[in-house]
Protein 1
Amino acid sequence: MAYETILVEVDERVGIIRLNRPQALNALNAQLINELNAALDGLEADRNIGCIILTGSEKAFAAGADIKAMQNFTYPDTYLDDYITSWERLSRTRKPVIAAVAGFALGGGCELAMMCDFILAADTAKFGQPEIKLGVMPGSGGTQRLTRFVGKSKAMEMCLTGRLMDAVEAERSGLVSRIIPAADLMTEALKVAKVIAGMSLPVAMQTKEAVNRSYETSLAEGIRFERRVFQSQFGLPHQKEGMSAFIEKRPPDFKA
Ligand code: HXC
């Protein structure tokens, strides 16, 4: 499929999706979301892909939902078309997804980054939920996910004032896993993605599912889920390969 608003590339077992509307700082419109969703479907269906990177440009991961496209929406438009629900496809991706964020990740852009499994931030990254300045509030998970990442006080301040957070504050408050010099962001993201893509794919997917389960359930249920999935992994050839490789002092080969 030929895309106009994203670029998709494959490097070994890593799929790279780059948001690409430079004229609008990667503002998110329906076409971009449809193309992103189609690309995710394709990479999910490809068993040779073990990890996905979602990134933008040096200046912007994404500056939010496209304000020009939204300006004249009415309530019936948003309700009847279920505006935004299709944006959640990213959060249902079963394979690991890394957000590599440089520049602005604002509004829907910050929300997309938070739907990924973890965020690697360039030292130029700026995060924020400035929707309130436009007379609306976050609509794609910002009030919920940001609060889980950084706690109520900081999330509330950011959502109520629209203040942006730089990379240092984002790392300190747990929004991003680490900060990387901007020039090295993609090299480092690719290195991390290749490490993940070199693991057993079903085990990586199950690990992601178990970590995410911690947000949705009680501790006892989460631990029961983890235990059952852990036990089931002894039915995979990858457990034999991983443990044999350790004992034989060689690197494991999980491709089989
Ligand atoms: C449409 C946008 C845009 C957006 C930037 N542009 N953000 N177009 N929607 N969200 C366009 C500008 O209009 C401009 O186009 C071009 O991109 C460059 O932007 P500038 O503003 O000239 O760049 P700069 O001065 O560097 O400022 C960067 C910025 C600013 C601070 C990021 O662009 C900005 O504040 N953008 C809006 C951020 C925002 O409010 N995001 C939340 C959106 S609401 P022209 O044609 O003029 O050159 C949202 C709701 C989510 O996300 C709900 C669920 C998804």
Note: The longest strand covers residues 6-11.
Protein 2
Amino acid sequence: EWKSVKLKHQNDEIGQLVARYNTMNARLQTMFEQQQQFVSNASHELKTPLAVIKSYARLVERQGKEKPEVLEEGLATINSETDRMDHLIRQMLLLSTLERKEGMTVAKVELVGLIKSAIRSISMAFERTVNFNYYQAEVFYPADESQLNQLIYILLDNARKYSENQIDLTLTEQDQQLIITVTDYGEGIPEEDRTQIFNRFYRVDRARNRKTGGTGLGLTIAKAIVVAHSGEIEVMSELGKGTTFRVILPK
Ligand code: ADP
């Protein structure tokens, strides 16, 4: 009899270890696959502008001397594609810093001023109007200033890219939480895409997004920033009517 008890006991412990090992193994496997997927996507995203640069460089080399228009167009394209690669690489580096939770500098940040300055840069660069409603002239919040700046900029930049009319931004306080919403009245996001848009490189419409200059990393970065501040980000959208992103930050 005792033997069976002992065996059962042994089985319990080993069983637990095996179960724990299996969970860990599955988790590592998923992480590894995600990493591989990232490298593969990143290489692909970088290859596209690189191929364009290469072909224009060839064209300029062959015809640039005789045809000034070829030279001009070629150099302009090489320039813009280089910018595209630069932007993508910067975003990838930023994401990797964020995910390793490195270099976060938390200090008291004044949010109204920060948001106003992000609005200013968007409106100046793209001639778009952003209505900003806030509940208090000054709102101090412990955060990483440059990350929060990025966050607001990404949401405003998306609102601008995927809509044509006004953009509304609100800053409110509710139940010990700060709530920031960015609303646009643009194309909206199909329901089946709403959970995926925060994934790396995910874009609803790849063809269209090449024109708008998207990388598919903006919302991944936005979410990483929100998570680093122990907050949450949600999306509400209606096709053809518009989209609201809501950021909830604990006070
Ligand atoms: P991108 O650089 O392509 O904008 P993001 O990660 O910022 O990448 O967004 C992912 C995708 O989510 C976008 O490609 C777009 O399809 C969709 N999206 C994001 N914001 C909006 C918005 N305000 N309105 C409509 N679609 C949006």
Note: The two ends are 60 Å apart (CA to CA).
